[in-house]
Amino acid sequence: MVSQLAINTFLAVSLVHILNLVNALQVVCFMSMLNLRFPANAQFFAFSIMQIVNVDILDPDLINPMLGLNFQRDYELINIWQE
Asked: Comparing C-alpha atoms, which of 48, 69, 49 is closest to residue 58?
């Protein structure tokens, strides 16, 4: 009984810690959409973290057909608009 309580407490604290880390990364990633001014050292850190987090892990050309996303019509409209 006590051991189960200890394990549940440990897992709950771990989950809260992980969620707090994810929330901080979300703030850093979406900060570029806001018109904020940073000191040079904070800007370097924020943009370095942003570049690391925004890496494409899976190739979009491979994943889009699997998800049923077809952007061919968009490309055709862009070509018509550019002509």
From this structure: 69
Alpha-carbon gap, residue 40 to 82, rounded angstroms: 39
Euclidean distance between CA atoms 47 and 41, whole angstroms: 10
d(CA 20, CA 70): 35
How wide is the angle at C-alpha 34 spanned by C-alphas 81 and 22, nearest 5°?
110
The first and second tokens of residue 22, run together, are 């994810």
Q: At 35, give phi and psi (nearest 5°).
A: -90, 75
Write out pLDDT tens, residues 7-56.
Answer: 889 889 888 888 887 777 777 767 777 777 778 787 788 778 777 776 66
